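Re: that backbone. Tokens:
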């Protein structure tokens, strides 16, 4: 099912992305020669979910910006339909965030306080699409932070593969071994030995048909990855995850307040800006204004207003 491209080819990938929207469909010749399937013609259907909010401050989202200003940010994850197969991109918060947030996240809640209802948990929310965790074909994790990988315990004992970058898994294991509650919560991974975790290195074509491609966007974490999706409406969506918290991060090249390496974080934001300017629809993970205007699952992700984005670009 999978097609991996080494990290060495990431530079080629980025260069192609700047030249053409079709760059994010880069794949080996053997796969490119496959006959066009029904999925190729119709595209992938994308269903966005919000798993509560985090009460935080602006400087934690936009480094050194409007320090002390309160900011309530949505916690997002996605479910994608590829033909008859369903795939999750991230899982949102752990269910304990609705029951005992301070007890579960500890001191992290001083900067990011989760406000979540029981019914907003991953396994309950996907029932809106008639799904359960065991019905998913795969899960792709952008990274292992508490608000993106928090609900992977839904896949305990299942054969569903959970894909993450090898470098991110190394970071997760080190964080779990430390026992400390940081942006990585050890208890989120206490069932790790009962999960079907698969590592990838570099660009990863999930179905081998260029419809769902993960690609490294380090900076926020060392092993962070984003997702390029050929959507049903003809758009190519770039699900940025935490490589781009908000549109403002991208437009003003402001790294996230929490970053493993801020310079690399800005490089990822630059790639997103170029992709947006050549026609892709970039999707931030935590932008409250962006998500306020979006319908959530069971509705499909709607087209972005490209003219509004271009107007914003013209003003900066």
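Recovered sequence:
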């Amino acid at each position: 099912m999978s097609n991996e491209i080494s990290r060495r080819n990431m530079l080629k990938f980025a260069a192609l992305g700047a030249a053409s929207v079709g760059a994010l469909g880069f794949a080996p010749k053997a796969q490119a020669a496959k006959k066009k399937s029904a999925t190729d013609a119709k595209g992938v259907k994308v269903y966005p979910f919000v798993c509560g909010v985090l009460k935080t401050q602006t400087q934690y989202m936009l480094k050194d910006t409007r320090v002390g200003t309160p900011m309530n940010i949505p916690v997002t994850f996605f479910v994608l339909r590829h033909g008859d197969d369903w795939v999750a991109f991230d899982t949102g918060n752990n269910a304990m965030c609705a029951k005992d947030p301070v007890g579960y996240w500890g001191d992290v809640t001083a900067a990011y306080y989760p406000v979540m209802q029981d019914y907003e948990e991953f396994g309950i929310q996907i029932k809106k699409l008639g799904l359960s965790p065991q019905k998913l074909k795969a899960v792709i994790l952008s990274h292992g932070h508490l608000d993106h990988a928090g609900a992977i315990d839904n896949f305990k004992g299942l054969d569903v593969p959970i894909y993450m970058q090898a470098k991110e898994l190394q970071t997760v294991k080190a964080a779990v071994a430390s026992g400390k509650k940081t942006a990585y919560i050890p208890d989120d991974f206490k069932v790790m030995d009962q999960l079907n975790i698969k590592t990838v290195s570099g660009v990863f074509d999930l179905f081998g048909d260029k419809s769902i491609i993960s690609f490294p966007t380090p900076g926020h974490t060392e092993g962070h990855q984003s997702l390029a999706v050929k959507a049903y409406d003809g758009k190519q969506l770039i699900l940025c995850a935490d490589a781009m918290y908000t549109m403002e991060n991208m437009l003003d090249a402001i790294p996230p307040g929490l970053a493993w390496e801020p310079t690399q974080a800005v490089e990822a934001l630059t790639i997103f800006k170029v992709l947006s300017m050549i026609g892709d629809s970039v999707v931030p993970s935590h932008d409250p204004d962006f998500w306020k205007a979006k319908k959530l699952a069971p509705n499909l992700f709607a087209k972005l207003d490209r003219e509004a984005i271009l107007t914003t670009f013209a003003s900066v």
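The first strand starts at residue 3 and ends at 5. Residues 1-41, 306-316 have pLDDT under 50 and may be disordered.
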